[in-house]
Amino acid sequence: MVENQDRDLTVCLLTRKNPIRTALSIIDERRTGSVLVIDEDGRLEGCVTEQEIRRSLLAGATLDIPVEQLMTKPMATVAPSVGRPEVLDLMQALHLREVPIVDSSGRVCGIHFEDEIIGTPQLESWAVIMAGGRGTRLAPLTDNIPKPMLPIAGRPILERLVLHLVGSGVRKIFLSVNYLAEVIEKHFGDGSKFGCDIEYLREEIDRPLGTGGPLRLLEDLGYEATAPLIVLNGDLVTAFSVQDLLDAHRARGAVATISVSEYQHHVPFGVLEPRDGYLQRIVEKPTHSWFVNGGIYVVEPQLIERVPPGRMFPITALFDDCLKRGELVGLWDIRDDWQDIGRPAELARAQGHT
Q: The CBS domain covers which part of the protein (predicted)?
């Protein structure tokens, strides 16, 4: 699978001595605006644009001249850590059809195109996004739009999640829908315009299934996962590393892994610590921290059959069951940007209003 991705990337790259004839063939086949030029170590040297090639041909150049004679600097590059939504916004701002992904050594490790991304290995894992909640705490904003479809920086929260998963190599995504499901289904369709295959786990309007119950609906569509499932809430703004999460899950040999984020509470007073009715010590304005549930999980396929069909079931109940059976449940520190959008203040922060 990885080898196929590498070959796809290789055919999009040229070296200095390749003729512009080859560059034009790639541009025509890939329907791009330019071709990247690399050195023998795979480091990015420049690009050749379709516009520059046509200008040179009109000036009398032949198709056999090397691309190095027309090479210019790319208008933009991005690091592997930059999310797909941000890349698409960059494309729109600069009117680009592709943006190279360049690592810290200057090597090209992928290319973002408008309708796909190459160079990123496709993952076997499917993703299930829970997007059926009403979002009552955000009313009246959610009176006519599902909470996951609220915009952040001009793009719906759920779209950001889908694009992030696709940019990380996930190609099969299930959206669990209920409240105003038609809004979500109309926006995403079959997922083709987002570079993936999307199907819907449809809850009954008057019977919500919670954060875990929709997993059982996979059987209704005839699906049986063969790799760990990525399960996440649909109201998260995050750029978590999908690959790191899956790697941590496998390394721990757990049946499930829960992402965690550190929550800190600052006490604005001097705290008195007693002992046997006497003052033991004074701690001035301490800060306490706890790990809290990040709403992103990895679940082994065999756990799906433990989800009761047709009733409300929080996914945390599944993890409690694992612990009672003596099974390992791993924890993974997100460490990346993460924000839950459940209250007006949190939405305002994510939208940059506070």
A: 1-65, 71-128
Which residues contact residue 349 at a Cβ distance below 8 angstroms, ignoring those fewer than 6 apart? 339
Q: 350 falls in which pLDDT band (50, 70, 90)?
A: low
CA 274 to chain centre: 48
Q: pLDDT digit string (tens) for 271-320?
A: 999 999 999 999 999 999 999 999 999 999 999 999 999 999 999 999 99
At what angle are helices 157-167 and 84-94 packed, to 10 degrees?
Answer: 100
Could you read off the pLDDT of 126-168 as tens digits, one per residue?
Answer: 999 999 988 888 888 888 999 999 999 889 999 999 999 998 9
Domain 127-350, CATH class in plain words: alpha beta
**Amino acid in the structure at residue 7:** R
Active site residue 73: no
Model-level pTM? 0.81
Q: How far is CA 85 from the centre of its chain?
A: 9
Catalytic residue selected from 73, 147, 172, 285: 285
- CATH number for domain 2-118, candidates 2.40.50.140, 3.30.70.260, 3.10.580.10, 1.10.10.10: 3.10.580.10
